[in-house]
Amino acid sequence: MIRFALIVASVLGFALTTAVGNLLVPLLRALVPPQQETGSKPDRPDPQHKSASAEPRGLPTMGGLCFIIGTLTAVGVGWVVVCLVQPELLGGGLTGRLMLGLGAGFLFGAAGLADDLARLRPRQVLGLRPGARLALEAAAALVTVAALYLNGAMPTGLTLPGTGYLELGAAAAPLWAVMLVALSESARPSGGADGAAAGAAFVAMLGLMGAETILGFFPLAVLPAALAGALMAFLLWNFYPARLLPGSVGTLFLAGAVGGIPLSIGRADIALALALPFWVEGLAAVLQGLWRRLARRPLFRQGSFEGWLRKKGGPVAVFYVFCTLALAGTLAALRTAQL
For 167, phi and psi rounded to 5 degrees? Predict the structure, then answer.
């Protein structure tokens, strides 16, 4: 019967995201700043923002609100079905873990929404300044880690292949906070590539469902099931040629979910594996900055790893590469869950 609840959550996530999208897309299209249509330059050029996520394309952003709303409702209905099947879960620790994973996504989504709203201001298409954005992400990470600690769900170590369980002790909490901020910053640039962030997160949610099943948290799979269904619907607008972008609110929500849900079940190592495509994008950005400083020229002339892929193989190639990396990360996560 719990499998039926997962199917309900997935189908409902798909249907609700489709319905909400049909309502929100015209509104979001009306919010596209005029300078994105005319191509005028922003008032503060930033070389770190030369990725597709920052390029004015005249497309409506904040599309992440569609799958966030769809996921929230689908998880609520799906968890009610799960609790009807197993009433003992209603007041147990699993409900708290579900809220922790969902809350991490919403906290980072809120930080992303602030960034998207800042883009609506005249001549500020790049959103919040990096310092302000990092402060909001750090606050979201600290609240997430504090909630994990207060609910007794924070992992104090991680499992490494060939090494076993590595106990981190007092270093665990700050390390998870740094990981969440780094993950959100690594995922954010991929929001401008047609279908890349949503496709990678969709594969990651499928992997997370499998990992939670292996680890004995099968009822909690209602959350990744609902989000997977919602992302499948969102890809109808976001796949190439995109008519809607997830925006910072969508990409940061996905980063918070990919990082926060594994933390809520005590397996940070799974988050490290599932976020592989985002880590690759983040590592490429770090190498880009170091190469620019050392060699006085960019490593990727297109500004980012995603831009380089788009130049070499086209927008669809970016989607396939991100999904392939996500699949590799999913296989690694499932293998890690078996250790």
Answer: -80, 130
Lookup: tokens for 85: 């099947």
Instruction: Say if CB 91 and CB 117 are below 8 A apart.
Output: no
Return contacts of 106-109, CB within 8 angstroms, 24+ apart: 106/68, 106/253, 106/256, 107/140, 107/143, 107/144, 107/256, 108/137, 108/140, 108/180, 108/184, 108/252, 108/253, 108/255, 108/256, 108/260, 109/64, 109/68, 109/249, 109/250, 109/252, 109/253, 109/256
Residue-number span of the structural domain to which 161 is assigned: 2-337
Of 306, 332, 300, nearest to 318 by C-alpha is 306
125-143 b/e (C-beta count within 10 Å ≥ 16 → b): bbbbeeeebeebbbebbbe
Which of these, 228, 270, 274, lies nearest to 6 by C-alpha position? 228
| HEC profile of 43-80 | CCCCHHHCCCCCCCCCCCCCCHHHHHHHHHHHHHHHHH
325 Cβ partners below 8 Å, 6+ apart? 200, 276, 277, 280
- Output 161 or 204, whichever has higher pLDDT: 204
DSSP-assigned letters across all residues of 286-338: HHHHHHHHHHSS-SSTTSSHHHHHHHHH-HHHHHHHHHHHHHHHHHHHHHHHT
Per residue in 42-93, pLDDT tens? 444 444 444 444 444 578 889 999 999 999 999 999 888 888 877 777 666 8
State how far the Cα of 149 lies from the Cα of 147, in Å rounded to an integer: 5
Which residue's structure tokens are 């400083």? 293
Q: Residue 97 in contact with residue 265, Cβ under 8 Å?
A: yes
Q: How far apart are CA 93 and CA 110, in angstroms?
A: 26
- Axis crossing angle, helix 247-264 with helix 93-119, rounded to the nearest 10: 160
Total number of domains constituting the chain: 1
